[in-house]
Specification:
Layout (H helix, E strand, L loop, with lengths): L1 H10 L4 H12 L4 H8 L3 H4 L7 H14 L9 H21 L4 H5 L6 H9 L2 H20 L1
Helix pairs in contact: 1-2, 1-9, 2-3, 2-5, 2-9, 5-6, 5-9, 6-9
């Protein structure tokens, strides 16, 4: 269910982080509108810096919204659980893609005209990004 919902967000113009985070956020009491805004800067490897893949950062936020430490929580148990789940997610994502770097996943620079053309000509959004969104959601569902 979440996989389809995430792909629908992505195919309708939302970035990879928004697509992964929003279904989990809604399930945890965050409005769709707020979830989309919260994750809006994380796409394209965080603001199109092409660092950590937005599907990955969306997954990290999804883990945090469900298990993270909040006001009133004492001790570090929730923080440590969250960190452990992030590490588990990272290992699972790397098993599939070998990296969490947007630039390495796409093998082009989206900040240049040449890179944008390469991405468009090779349908990287459909071939790479959609798969990253799908796999990120599957992994989060599995580990939560």
């Amino acid at each position: 269910m979440k996989e389809k919902e995430s792909l629908d967000y992505f195919k309708n113009g939302f970035n990879c982080a928004q697509a992964v985070f929003t279904p989990f956020a809604k399930e945890n009491g965050i409005s769709e509108s707020h979830a989309l805004k919260i994750a809006s800067g994380f796409g394209g490897g965080m603001g199109r810096l092409q660092a950590t893949c937005g599907a990955v950062t969306g997954a990290y936020m999804a883990i945090g919204v469900q298990h993270g430490k909040s006001l009133g929580d004492t001790g570090d148990e929730k923080k440590e659980k969250t960190y452990g789940l992030v590490k588990t997610f990272d290992a699972e994502f790397r098993k599939i893609f070998s990296t969490t770097s947007c630039r390495e996943l796409l093998q082009c620079d989206l900040n240049t005209e040449e890179g944008k053309k390469y991405a468009a000509d090779n349908k990287l959004t459909q071939k790479v990004c959609e798969r990253c969104v799908q796999e990120a959601v599957k992994i989060v569902e599995k580990i939560l």
